[in-house]
Amino acid sequence: MVDTYACGIQVERPEGSLWALADLSPDLSCQEIKRFARGKRFDEMPSKERYAWKALGDDHYHRLYRKTHSTKALFDAGFFDDGLPQLASDYPSSISTFACTSFQKVADNLAKIGSTTLAKLAVLVTTGGMAPIHNGHIAMMEEARRRLQSQGVIVLGGFFAPGHDSYVGQKYGGTAAISAAHRCAMVELAVKDSDWLELDPWAARYMPAEVNFTDVYERMVRLLTNHAHGIDVYYVCGSDNAGFADAIPGQVITIERTAISSKMAREGEHSHLDPLVRDYLVNLNPDTGNLPYLIRNEEDEAIHQWRDIMPGGQEELTRRRIQLQSTIRLGIAQMFKNCGQDHKVHLLPLSEQRAKAEKVIAGRPTISLDPFFESTHAIHSTRYFTLAGAQLAPLFRAERSGFRPLEEQAEDIPQGSYVLVEDDSVTGGTIMSALALLPRRVNVEEVVLLSDFADYKDDSYYDVVDLRDFIVGSYCGGLSVNVPDGWRNIHKARAPYVAPFVSLRSRAKIPAEAEMEISRIIWQANVRFFKDSGITIEHCDLGFRRFTLHLDWTRDTPVEDFCRYYAERLMENLG
Predict the structure, then answer these.
(1) Phi and psi dihedrals of 385, rounded to 5?
(2) Which of 11, 27, 188, 455 would bridge with 390, disulfide CB 3.0–4.6 Å?
(3) Is the CATH number 3.40.50.620 carried by domain 96-282?
(4) Is the pLDDT of residue 289 over 70?
(5) pLDDT above 80: residue 9
(6) Mean of the per-residue pLDDT values for the chain?
């Protein structure tokens, strides 16, 4: 039997007993079937047998089938065979260790109401193509929240979970095909100013094929349970998918569909789009010019702590660092070429910048904001971002991991005149915050930017990033992230500058469609760098150690194993 969805996608539906097709006893529970399923290769099964295993191995569809004994009931409730070689719930990217979904807004809202509230708490999630997301999607979630709030339920957050390219590419004869990278980016822009709506990119970007909505729902339940108990999850859908309620009785909120559709936007009607989404949609392939892309090379400054651990000592450490930086530089350069962008990638040696800056400073007392410039005094300040979120703007500014509060650092600086030293200044925020911290007795007579001692100035390069950020666990390397309180009570940490933890689109101007490929290159380069090195998480930067603790890694884990784990997880979505 072949069934057809309203969007034109066809799915096969076998007739007859699923228990017989899977050669399973009807007495088996779903959990027992899941245990039997582990180790099986479903992609090697006949399609009818695989369909049976997949349906009976899903908690919700198992329950529905046991009630109805009807595959038509499964179809009406949204079930389809995803074709994956194992159950979607068994993919490592579905668990909290992978951390590709931001729960910052949920945590913030939970903190506002306090842990002693007696009210029922909830989180909403919805799926769909979102090609692109429009105001009707937002209104649907807002209406679902109003309904729950009218019943006394506090809604902490709502997640848009776009579908995989394998699904969206088939909708309406392929006319809905906008890549997951762009659809997720537009969701991030649409919810940028919301205090409760967020993106869940798991199904779209970290799975190899489209999965059932129940998999997205169950993953959300599992992640929230890991972090905080007593939060119900509700699935929100349009009235055209009202049958989904049969799969998760009591936890589906159906909202009447409006005339607004993504198809209208794809055909040029943009009045129902957020202005940021509209601008992104009409400029999917922007001309970014040919300005150079710069990577500041701290050489061995950020990794010197490993020289006595690395077999072969300093010489081998340097050799591996040069290999890593070459791999990443060439990977980014080739990526720009593949994306039709003409940015040449250049390395800026820190040692050269520092030597030139010291000549200008000429022995005057200094206050450094750069962790790699030796100075009379220093202020260790950094901006903190949401873990795995859009990271379009920082949450707050505070001291780097392991240092005293900024006010105390500034108070220690004695009276006098100083030169303030910073690596570069894109927005000027770091410099302005430092000047505001300094007591009146401290006079800054000049600001020196290390970036001014390169061949490129602020207006003559596309972006500048630091090599250390791409070396996992390096000193002051990675992105400073906030791990929400209540999510294991860890606040300030440092995450590797790579997917799934960091948005390279936001933080390094990597084109959205190339984020996954560049992230794989960075993870694999780190696997080679740390191979048989003996370097463990314990030997790494304090902020990185805090971050890995949040993900349940142990300190004696070799960094090579840590990097290989995430390199392999990113390979999952290749299919």
Answers:
(1) -120, 165
(2) 188
(3) yes
(4) yes
(5) no
(6) 91
Rounded to 10 deg, the angle between the 59-68 and 47-56 helix axes is 100
CA 559 to the chain's CA centroid? 20
- Token pair in block for residue 210: 């489209």
What pLDDT, on a 0 to 100 scale, did the predictor assign at position 384?
95
Compute the residue count for the chain: 575
Domain boundaries, the chain: 2-88, 96-282, 292-575
In the predicted model, what is the mean pLDDT of residues 87-107? 89
- Quick one: tokens of 549? 């603790």
Please give the pLDDT value at position 413.
Answer: 96
For 212, the token pair is: 């059932």
Architecture of domain 2-88: Orthogonal Bundle (1.10)
* DSSP codes of every residue in 229-291: SSEEEEEEEEGGGGGGGGTSTTSEEEE---S--HHHHHTT--TTS-HHHHHHHHTSS---TT-
Concatenated DSSP letters for 134-177?
A: -HHHHHHHHHHHHHHHHTTEEEEEEEEEEPPHHHHTTGGGGTT-
To which residue do tokens 């005293």 refer? 404
Cβ contacts of residue 153 below 8 Å, gap of 6+?
119, 120, 121, 122, 232
- CB neighbour list of residue 573: distance below 8 Å, 6 or more residues apart: 93, 205, 206, 207, 208, 516
For residue 224, the number of C-alpha atoms closer than 13 Å in the C-beta half-sphere is 26
Write the Ramachandran bin of 448: left for phi over 0, alpha for psi from -120 to 50, otherwise beta.
beta
Q: What distance in Å separates the CA atoms of residue 17 and residue 21, rounded to the nearest whole number? A: 6
Q: How confident is the model at residue 259 (pLDDT cuts 50, 70, 90)?
A: confident
